[in-house]
Amino acid sequence: MTAFKTLSLAMFKGFIRDKVTLFFTFLFPLMFLVIFGLILRDVGADKTRIAVVGDGPIVSALRESGALELESYSDENAAVQKVKDGDLPAALIIRGQQLDVRFAQSDQVKSATVLGIVNGFVDKANLAATGQPPRFTFASEKVEDASLKPIQYLTPGILSWGVAVSAVFGAALTLVSWRRKQVLRRIRLAPVSATSVLSSRLLVSAGVALVQGATFVGIAMLPLFGLKLSGSWWLAIPLLLLGTIAFFALGMLVGAFAKTEEAASAAANIVVLPMAFLSGTFFPVDQAPAWLQTVSKIFPLRHMNDGMLDVLVRGKGIEALLMPSAILVGFALVVGFIASRVFKWEE
Amino acid sequence: MTEERSAVVVRDVRKSYGELKAVDGVSFTVAEGEFFGILGPNGAGKTTTLEIIEGLRKPDSGEVRLLGESPWPRNVKLLPRIGVQLQASSFFEKLTAKEQLQTFGALYGVSKGTAADMLELVGLADKANEQENKLSGGQRQRLSIACALVHDPDIVFLDEPTAALDPQARRNLWDVLRAIQERGKTIVYTTHYIDEAEILCDRVAIMDEGRILALDTPAVLVRGLDAPTHVTLQKGVLSIVDASALDGVEEAHENEVSLTLSTRRPAPVLSALAERGALDGLQVRTATLEDVFLNLTGREYRA
Asked: Span of the secretion signal (chain B) (predicted)?
């Protein structure tokens, strides 16, 4: 036990003293989280802005409702010019009882939205002017749909990816560098098994994964990004650990074949990057074509992602862990077994 | 020397890589507490021989007994009793000298206190908290030896520990190696430095092209050579004609600074020189292992 403890401590020290590894483990995925988080922050949240010339009861009603954002202009020509330049989708010009809307032909979706809204308010005002009670009424209410705000799917995706990268690289580079520097030979000449030495490295990777989880989620929850965790977020912990084991096994396999650190790095990238893109790290897979969704199901990262999404933001319970956990464990067993078969002590 | 008292017994070991006979019928024994050197140029088969004895490689044929046991296949009972120094860079990443020793010690279940003793032994006590990659080549080499000793093994294998070190670092390391022998360890080491083998080893095996050409104490190897002694004098002390006429001188030649006489009977030559008061700048060089190697292989020693 003391041997295992000393070894784990040694690996841990080696890890935190390596600035390059620290960068790729923490800062690199965080950069993606921050950049994508900021770029996509306002997607879908934008209200349509239109130009308004003049004032009146309809304009006041529009402004109060907040359905559109109004930009006032005193000059009609200036307002229309804005539409012609493509800066605004429409201009609303009020001449007493007469309302003119000039809209850009190119942006039909926004124009239709503007026309519909303005029309609605005009009809309502007309109806009110007649003094008749409305025959039909309707009420609206917000529904949480399955599509998520970007930060909600970015955080679980980038976290899974970050954990996968650090576990694959951690295992592959450790193995290759130990083989090259004959540390493996030293271990072979000592009365310990390679398994006990490698599991101390795995322990470090598992610890790293938990710290990654805490850091990434913590930063995404800052008001700037606005991640909202579901109540069952703690179910992500077993998923992080299982993911670490699965991707560590994958790294061992890469490390068994690669002869140099450079080759190991390249091979690990070739394995991890496409998998990350196809598994929904940077965009939700359900927006991808159906065939791609099917392909992505062969990647363990896809299932880890799904599990992370379900427990971190979708608020699903422990049953959401079953499928991802089974796949990660199975993957770890199969790949780990192959890795142990092709394991090489010497160059 | 009975086999029970032998630390290492190697009997007719052979190992080929394709056409190349890396080790071609090597036999020798090493006694407990002995400082045994395997000397030879690069590619002579020294390292392969060592790796076979350590149990890292399986010989094609032949037998190895290490402390009375077979080292192949991996013999876990034997491992704590042998220490192997590997190349200078085989350390864990980013650990200090002390942490390296503690970690390698942990592989053997050794307590952490041993690390400090080992640093003391190899003269690195003041570098305990330096990271391994910040040490000089000689310091790394000494740390690497300390790592091989951390579990207090009975036999220590060192593969060219002094290669690529500057002269001062080499001499420092010699002191370390002697201190290890004084602790009662058996040392088996390879080198391609002839002078070093002559100074350090109890016995030397001279190896070339996979075979042992000669094996004995350095003194016996040199004595058995019947090589002439070279007596060198300052130029101008004696003319080359007078020198050649001296009793016992076989050959005399001169260059810009000195006159060199070759003789197999140095005593009468030296007394004749003394009589003439011609001892200015006198140097006497007897045959060395280098001459032994030249004699055995018919070619210059190329390290």
From this structure: none
